[in-house]
């Protein structure tokens, strides 16, 4: 299985070219990410050494409330982090990072690693705060993160037990529900392997509200089972254990949680593509067998039916 990298390759490539004086030029690059994030990389009109990286993240109010901008500034010391970000093509971005590539050339390796990860760093703040409160045993209200236009992540702390992340996922294609059910069963079976005994517990429910969300009033997803099934709603619950919440593992855990939805849909599309390839191969083999059965001699032969009638076969 492949986990998608936290760093954005487009931002990394553009930034790398701008650091090189031989390839440095005025640029304007628009792009996006799997989770609906939008970004614009644009050099300053009067100085091609100044590069602005503007990023729009859905659900920005929640991420900013829980210290997303502060974490970015801490991760990118010496660079200007502006929030709200620049307005480009009628879109006010969540934040804008400004870097002078000529002055910061000595820190090239660091910025090539950190700036392409800026979206993940910004989004991880809310997860890190939830983990910290849970490990300290502090009371924490459920946190609702609207990370996509129609979908949410809920962080729920069960004091003294586990921290649970619940994903509401809207499956547009009914086939995806079947594939997701089979795919996520592999995570349950992984717990049987002693080497993977520390893996988090995972549950998947389709057409039924996740048990962890029943008593939460702020839930925006439908509660009626008929509506949930008709619209294609599914819920994935991941229970994080103490081993995942250790101080040295919290950032990695946050990154994995942020990328989980993209990870799931990426593999669903890979599964469908693989099935289509196998189906085409099967059809090709059947066509070969049918073509091999054709009589290419051109001779006309007489055949008889069960009733005794005679006919000629070309």
TrEMBL record:
InterPro entries, per database record: ARPC2, ARPC2/4
Keyword NADP applies: no
GO cellular component term, pick one: Arp2/3 protein complex
Pfam families: P34-Arc
Principal location: cytoplasm
Keywords: Actin-binding, Cytoplasm, Cytoskeleton
Compartments, record wording: Cytoplasm, Cytoskeleton
Family, per entry: Belongs to the ARPC2 family.
Name the UniProt record assigns to this protein: Arp2/3 complex 34 kDa subunit
Natural source organism: Naegleria fowleri
